Known about the structure:
Blueprint: E1 8-10, E2 13-15, E3 19-21, H1 30-39, E4 43-49, E5 63-66, E6 75-78, H2 87-100, E7 105-110, H3 115-127, E8 132-136, H4 149-152, H5 155-168, E9 173-176, H6 185-193, E10 198-201, E11 205-207, E12 211-212, E13 217-218, E14 229-232, H7 237-249, E15 258-261, H8 267-275, E16 278-283, H9 285-290, H10 294-308, E17 335-341, H11 351-359, E18 364-367, E19 372-375, H12 385-389, E20 395-402, H13 410-418
Parallel strand pairs: 3-4, 3-16, 4-7, 7-8, 8-9, 9-10, 10-15, 15-16
Antiparallel strand pairs: 1-2, 5-6, 6-14, 11-14, 12-13, 17-20, 18-19
Helix pairs in contact: 3-5, 5-6, 8-10
Domain 4Fe-4S ferredoxin-type: 337-369, 371-400
Main location: cytoplasm
Keywords: Flavoprotein, FMN, Iron, Iron-sulfur, Metal-binding, Oxidoreductase, Pyrimidine biosynthesis
Amino acid sequence: MIDKDLSVEFMGVHFENPFLLSSSPVGNCYEMCAKAFDEGWGGVVFKTIGPKHFKVDEVSPRFDELTKEGTPFVGFKNMEQIAEHSLEENLHDLKELKKNYPNKVVVASIMGTNEEDWEELAQLVTEADADMIEMNLSCPQMTSHEMGSDVGTNPELVKKYCAAVKRGSDLPMMAKMTPNITDMIPAAKASLDGGAQGIATINTVKSISNIDLDKKVALPIVNGKSSISGFSGKAVKPIALRFIQQLRTAAGLELLPISGIGGIETWQDAAEFILLGATTLQVTTSVMQYGYRIVEDMKNGLMHYMEEQHVDHLADLVGLATKNIVPAEKLDRDYKVYPKIDWDKCIGCGRCYISCFDGAHQAITWDEEKRRPSVNINRCVGCQLCNLVCPVGAITTGEKVLKPGRKGNAADKQVESSRLTHF
């Protein structure tokens, strides 16, 4: 049994492990959050609490999925708004959670319509014994333009509302950022100027996931109509990783505390977020598919990864990959990697030939009689599309070779001279 230290310190708060329920339907009441704690989650971000005067009026149905060839959904669309329970019920649940689970982290997610709302909510959740505050500045399906992602794209409002929360509470506070923006850095810096100590990102991406071709309405259909709303799940992970990397490499934000969100389903996903700079990890969509128990798989996988990397403390992995992502103009363009075909694995399906001819550089030739592909390196640019489409893993990335005509050292020349016999 591998036992590694998964604990982290985030914005001055100790977490026994980095995994939290994100503010969503999966953490909507005491019973749900308590079960998650019992299953081993390090913390919960309770579903966003709004002001007393704001009435939540949900639609039905309010979910849709994006699938591929019958797999569990790749993406998930929801029209869910903030917590539908009364303010009193939500505050009671926060207090009970902290009383009954003193070693777990209870994060109160709040959302107001003006400075007074934000300040009052901050004060109320502090009195309810929350450990931290998350400001929801990013929900894309609020019915009021005074709330959600319309606020998160406005750095001036972000700063003003963060300052209001700090007037109402001295708890550690993070601002939850919207991905529905070209550059997140100005809004993130505005939140820090207003008093936030960290960032949570990303919230869901504004989307239309599917169209009913007969009814000619987007899904889900609500009495004949639909609406743009938030998209989550595995499909948004690349967007989340991009924003986290950009935040952690922006001038002045190199040590920014980040709670990563967006498509985390496996320990590998979790490791990617951590390596790009996230300290804690928030999860919703995969819980909706598989239940709270997935946290055990993610924790065990991370500990095995740490063992392989000879790392004892999870915190030592945070941000290690950021330095290896550079602007496109700084990438080394002086070599190629040609594909290598393993004839023992090749099943002669022709998939690589079709993809290369129709979608790349016509660099794979096809022997119809033997049903065997081969690489023409005089045309191949090393894009590796054939590698990606091969259904049996018969094509791999070959050795690094020099561009034709480039002068290199003795080792480079040896690789260059051997490339014609590599296939």
